[in-house]
Amino acid sequence: MVEKRWIISYSLIVFVALLAVSWEFIGGVEAVPQNTDAIVGADVAWILTSSCLVLLMTPGLSFFYGGMVGVKNTISTMLQSFVCLGVISVLWMTIGFSLAFGEDVGGMGIIGNPGTYFMFNNVGAGVETSLAPTIPLMLFAIFQLKFAIITPALITGSFAERVRFISYLLFVCLFSLLIYTPLCHMIWHPKGLLKNTFHVLDYAGGTVVHMSAGFAALAGAIVLGKRQNKEHTPTNIPFVLLGTGMLWFGWFGFNAGSALAANESAGLAFATTNSASAMAMLTWIFFDRINGRKVSAMGACIGAVVGMVAITPAAGYVTIPQALFFGFAASTVSNMLVNWKVMKKMDDTLDVFACHGVGGIMGMILTAVFAGVKNEKGEKVGLIYGGYEDFFLSMQALLIVSAFTFGGAYVLYKFTNMIIPLRVTEESERMGLDLSQHDESLDTGKM
Q1: pLDDT higher than threshold 70 for residue 1
Q2: pLDDT digit string (tens) for 59-96?
Q3: Which of 189, 214, 234, 428 has a 20 to 30 Å separation from 28 between CA atoms?
Q4: Whole-angstrom distance between the N-terminal and C-terminal Cα of the chain?
Q5: What are the C-alpha distances in Å from 222 to residues 30, 404, 409?
């Protein structure tokens, strides 16, 4: 018998589809003046390419996570990342983009007006100078969509092997609307609170994406509790290597694309991204060996990803030597946390907080220390250049973001659990989520 919650979910999809079809006929779509004179063809080409690169990161993440979990949960874990391509795309185009980049509500710099771009109304081929001065607003919105897609997908590694799929879908929607979009607005909108009041620098999403996902992952591990059997053999290390390669490849669009132009800033972000990741990979494997652990492919991959996470908020603001230090420092701290007994007891399945959360925190701190970008007075804002005020404001913002993302996610997990239990039954967990949730299996090839 089909469960009532699946019928309700399908009914919601039907409603959204009908609303989308009828929107222009009920006066929802207005003619928008198309300011296309400022469009630069090279910038359009680069952001189109970057959007494709960032999109590739989500399938890359599915391989990265899927190879790490046990064989009974591979398909489920990969699908949890992959399904965000569908869920967040629809959510973003209906209301998410408005909440993130719509007209600021009340002058508070916290959230956008949901009606500004509802159903992508007013999103066209023209330029919105305050957001992206040389590319169509439509392209900017789609580029930002790719960031919105991968953020909740990152969280899934923390509660892998024990989460109910339909509950996860509900949580993803709530997280995207109530945590990701406000944070995005506060940091990247021209009138954002954290951007203007606390002078937060986040070039490509170290705070918006990785810190939010990392703290939500920590909350998820706490709320869902430990697995029955924490010990498992990773299903497919080559999957992890493949996923890392796809992430590394896509990250150039993630960071260099955030220049929103084909310019010197994009070139710098491209180079610093590669430098930090390379140094972090080497640091991880040497640090493992110094501590009596063997060099592993898994460790090399995790290290590389930590380096990319750490450099993300500073990619266009620091030099190559500084980027190398970012990779070294973040990889060392994350490695120590991954192997800390307290974290192991918590059962963050794939160490999402230790890698993405801590990598994001390290990135935010180091950005405030080393950023060479100049303020309105023409002074460099990094602590090493004398930017003490900006540094302390950034540290206050770090505490605000940490509390907001962890506390908000914790409440959303509890709320989701009240509606649909988050955790699968003991029998389903023993069977594995591939079979119990999806009736598919790597062992049998059943489809």
Answers
A1: no
A2: 999 999 999 999 999 999 999 999 999 999 999 999 99
A3: 189
A4: 20
A5: 46, 16, 11
CA distance 73 to 78: 9
Token pair for 236 = 């497919």
Secondary structure class of 158 (helix, strand, coil): helix
Please name which of 324, 322, 413, 326 lies closest in space to residue 361, comparing C-alpha atoms: 326
Q: What is the mean pLDDT of the chain?
A: 91
| Adjacent-strand bridge partners of 112 | 104
Return the closest-CA partner of residue 69 out of 77, 79, 59: 77
- pTM, two decimals, is 0.93
Phi, psi of 115 (to 5 degrees): -90, -10
Helix (H) or strand (E) holding 55: helix 41-66
- Is 7 buried (19+), middle (13-18) or exposed (0-12) by CB count in 10 A? exposed
What's the rounded Cα separation, in Å, for the pair 211 and 405? 8
Cα–Cα distance for residue pair 42/268, rounded to 1 Å: 17
Q: b vs e for 24-37, b when ≥16 Cβ sit within 10 Å of the residue's Cβ?
A: eeeeeeeeeeeeee
Domains of the chain: 40-434 (1.10.3430.10)
Angle between helices 212-224 and 137-155 (to 10 degrees): 30
User: Does the structure show a pLDDT above 50 at 381?
Assistant: yes
Distance CA 330, CA 326 (A): 6
- Reduce the DSSP state of residue 163 to 3 states and report it: strand
